[in-house]
Specification:
OB fold (Dihydrolipoamide Acetyltransferase, E2P); alpha+beta; 381 residues; 6-stranded mixed sheet; Rossmann fold
């Protein structure tokens, strides 16, 4: 018995009252004595694009494989559509996947690759042909359906893979570093293409990557993992502007970190003591708290010595240690004697006239100097 291909998934009208698409509650995974994932919990709403990011070996792919059903949790629960999927095999979870190795069938045309999951599910022949044409148009491969994978570029192969994963109308799309093998220019273009397709269809998506830019560009939500644990989960803007741990602050962007003590607090506005200096910043802390401070390189201004200090404080004398030409800008490393000779990274216009060894004035933007609770040695992974 055959059936027509379902329409692509969209946000449901009653999404406000429906359960989240994915709920992960206290999930852990052990391989012998090795803990790959430790007590992970997160919620993903319908239609959202979530990226799990972190260094190699942090547990992100293991977590994705448990959602897919290829691995089983050692502890905890995974719910999809509000239903516990512990006993549900991978092929019954209505999940589409795109892998790092695309696994396209080399002897099949692009159209046949896209049609394969539809045939496996017993869809009607006429419906399959129409759906394949629809998917080729969606990924902008009109007229290329008869080409085999070796006759397509790397980016075109990526599009075939995502079309195949979406062809049967899955509830959930999982991406396991599918762009990592592409060169930088092509990878950045495909990031935007993946995001366009996801938004066009409204399909709930979980992406795994180690690429910081990819996470920030593509995602509604980002989960940062380290040593099997979720360090922080939030929207990209909050994650970038308000990191909660030293690892998150250092993993995303070019960041300078230093320890401080809170001298005074007025809401989230803080007065900080660092060595013999007083700085202003933001964060949730109380007077006397030991905190770690983070500031992004783009929020540090470096100017020749003698430049008038900016309003709001946080202008300190420094020594320019290194200037690295990057085309339209220079990456600058300066040392601040007032802060214990700490190195601070900054970006400056390529024509700023800075040189190694020169005295400079360094301004740390008070609105983006963010303080968070210091991590103790006992808490380090």
């Amino acid at each position: 018995m055959t059936r027509d291909v379902p329409n692509p998934p969209t946000l449901m009208p009653d999404a406000a009252t429906a359960p989240p698409m994915v709920e992960i509650q206290g999930v852990s995974k052990r391989f012998g004595d090795t803990v790959a994932v430790a007590d992970a919990s997160l919620t993903l709403e319908r239609g959202a694009f979530l990226t799990i990011v972190g260094p190699s070996g942090c547990g992100k792919t293991t977590l994705l494989r448990m959602i897919a059903g290829f691995e089983h949790p050692s502890a905890g629960r995974i719910r999809i559509h509000g239903a516990d999927v512990a006993a549900l095999p991978a092929h019954k979870r209505a999940i589409g996947m795109v892998f790092q190795r695309l696994a396209l069938f080399p002897h099949m045309s692009a159209a046949d690759n896209i049609a394969y999951p539809l045939r496996r599910r017993g869809h009607a022949k006429a419906g399959i042909a129409a759906r394949v044409e629809e998917m080729l148009a969606l990924v902008r491969l009109d007229g290329l359906g008869e080409r085999r994978p070796h006759e397509l570029s790397g980016g075109q192969q990526q599009r075939v893979a995502i079309a195949r994963a979406l062809a049967f109308g899955p509830d959930l799309l999982l991406l396991d570093e599918p762009l990592s093998a592409l060169d930088r220019h092509l990878r950045e273009g495909m990031q935007l293409e993946f995001r366009r397709i996801q938004q066009d269809l409204g399909v709930t998506t979980i992406n795994v990557t180690h690429d910081q830019r990819e996470a920030l560009v593509m995602s509604d939500q980002i989960v940062v993992m380290n040593h099997g644990r979720i360090e922080q989960a939030s929207d990209p803007h909050t994650l970038y502007r308000e990191p909660q741990t030293r690892f998150v602050a250092s993993f995303l962007g070019v960041t300078s970190l230093f320890a401080a003590e809170v001298a005074a607090a007025d809401g989230d506005r803080l007065t900080l003591r660092v060595g013999g200096e007083t700085l202003r910043g933001r964060g949730l802390a109380a007077p006397g708290d030991a905190v770690d401070c983070a500031i992004r390189a783009e929020h540090v201004t470096v100017a020749p010595a003698g430049t008038p200090p900016r309003e709001g404080g946080n202008t300190l004398p420094g020594i320019c240690e290194r200037v690295i030409f990057e085309g339209d800008r220079s990456a600058v490393i300066v040392r601040l004697p007032a802060l214990g000779d700490r190195p601070v990274s900054a970006f400056a216009p390529a024509a700023a006239g800075l040189s190694a060894g020169a005295p400079v004035a360094v301004h740390l933007d008070p609105d983006t100097l963010f303080a968070f609770r210091a991590t103790t040695k006992e808490e380090l992974p």
